[in-house]
């Protein structure tokens, strides 16, 4: 670590931890943050072009939903595989591969001629989308010192909101310059931009010291780490509880973000949801939520922060579905919605990094987070089926409550890891 003196004014500031980083650590931080933002940008393009595809190709809402579900499932598989690769070939190499992967298949989406081609291209893109998060979260978690790990990893996670905002701006730009039948393709073609960023990573980002030390030990002992170790008697309980934690967080997120717009449009007959102002409020709320949660996860501890944001997410879901709201109220409720449902993820990367030993960290973190993503992606389907027998708002509340309840129980039973030093 850098031992140079830090001015007192900086030492007392909220970002003193960043000023204390070495050049190597800063390059790693920005590489992971920008990489995650570009991942989000390419991922969010689909949500903006779906209306155009429905109009030009005659897609049904079911077709559009299938593309989204397939992407989530393949991203879960991609994150799982990327975790294993991170333990085998390194965090940095895996990060490069996953960025190139999702950039290539995003561009391929722009050349799709029909629904089946788009489904395949988007599904394959999902492997890189999920893999990038896993590799980047492990990399930044291992580079940053223990007491600042939560802040750093959380602020990297905030890159998602920046990428989401960038995709919204590019959507507005392309659709203002080009006719819709060309604009949606040009949006996907811009997905090539992340590939250029790999050049920077390849030249300036190095593997974490703790990982390099672990690899030397493995070479000397000639005993390679095995993915199956995360299911060994010593690790099985931790792995399963980590899966429950991530399932609760992602199940609640998908339950709220997938069905709330439909509920508010069809049952509350609100019009503000389709406006840029509402989307901007949600995106800004998301970014602020990530940042606040990043600091709180070090200040309060991982577990208390998870519980705080899980309770906040549940409360905002109940407010949306139970309270009588107008368009004006809904516009401002977009901020706390983004704040809580996104902020709940801010401490996830640091926590999972600290739960698993270095030799199987990629396998454990990749499996836990992405198994949670796979199970959580089923929540929108279950809400849709349940809404045939109960009110949609009630179904959203029930499943969001179950999801965040599971998350809180898992957080209570898992060990507190704030400040834990990573040992090889």
TrEMBL record:
GO terms for molecular function: carboxylic acid transmembrane transporter activity. Keywords: Membrane, Transmembrane, Transmembrane helix. Residues 28-418 form the Major facilitator superfamily (MFS) profile domain. The chain crosses the membrane at residues 36-59, 65-85, 97-113, 119-140, 152-176, 182-201, 234-256, 276-299, 306-323, 329-355, 391-414. One of its GO terms (cellular component) is plasma membrane. It is found in: Membrane. Its main location: membrane. Pfam families: MFS_1. It is a multi-pass membrane protein. This is Sugar phosphate permease. It comes from Pseudoduganella namucuonensis.
């Amino acid at each position: 670590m850098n031992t140079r003196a830090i001015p007192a004014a900086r030492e007392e500031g909220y970002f003193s931890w960043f000023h204390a980083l070495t050049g190597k650590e800063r390059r790693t931080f920005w590489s992971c943050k920008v990489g995650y933002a570009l991942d989000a940008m390419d991922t969010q393009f689909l949500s903006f072009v779906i209306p155009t595809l429905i109009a030009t190709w005659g897609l049904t809402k079911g077709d559009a939903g299938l593309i989204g579900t397939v992407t989530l499932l393949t991203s879960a598989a991609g994150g799982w595989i990327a975790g294993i690769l991170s333990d085998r070939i390194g965090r940095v190499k895996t990060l490069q591969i996953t960025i190139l992967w999702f950039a290539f298949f995003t561009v391929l989406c722009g050349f799709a001629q029909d629904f089946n081609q788009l489904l395949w291209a988007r599904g394959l893109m999902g492997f890189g989308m999920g893999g990038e998060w896993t590799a980047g979260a492990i990399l930044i978690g291992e580079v940053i010192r223990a007491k600042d790990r939560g802040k750093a990893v959380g602020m990297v996670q905030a890159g998602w909101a920046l990428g989401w905002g960038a995709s919204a701006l590019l959507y507005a730009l392309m659709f203002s310059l080009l006719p819709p039948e060309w604009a949606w393709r040009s949006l996907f073609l811009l997905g090539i931009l992340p590939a250029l960023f790999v050049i920077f990573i390849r030249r300036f980002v190095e593997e974490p010291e703790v990982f390099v030390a672990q690899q030397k030990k493995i070479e000397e002992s000639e005993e390679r780490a095995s993915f199956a170790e995360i299911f060994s008697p010593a690790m099985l309980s931790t792995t399963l509880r980590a899966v429950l934690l991530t399932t609760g967080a992602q199940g609640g997120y998908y339950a709220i973000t997938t069905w709330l717009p439909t509920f508010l449009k069809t049952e509350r007959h609100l019009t503000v949801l389709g406006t840029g102002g509402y989307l901007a409020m949600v995106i800004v709320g998301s970014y602020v939520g990530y940042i606040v949660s990043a600091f709180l996860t070090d200040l309060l501890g991982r577990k208390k922060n998870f519980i705080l944001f899980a309770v906040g997410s549940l409360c905002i879901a109940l407010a949306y579905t139970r309270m009588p709201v107008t368009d004006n109220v809904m516009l401002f409720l977009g901020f706390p919605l983004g704040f809580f449902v996104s902020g709940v993820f801010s401490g996830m990367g640091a926590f999972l990094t600290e739960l698993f030993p270095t030799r199987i960290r990629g396998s454990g973190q990749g499996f836990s987070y992405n198994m949670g993503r796979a199970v959580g992606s089923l929540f929108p389907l279950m809400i849709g089926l349940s809404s045939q027998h109960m009110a949609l708002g009630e179904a959203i509340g029930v499943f969001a409550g179950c999801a965040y309840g599971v998350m809180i129980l898992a957080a209570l039973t898992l060990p507190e890891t704030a400040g834990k030093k990573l040992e090889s």
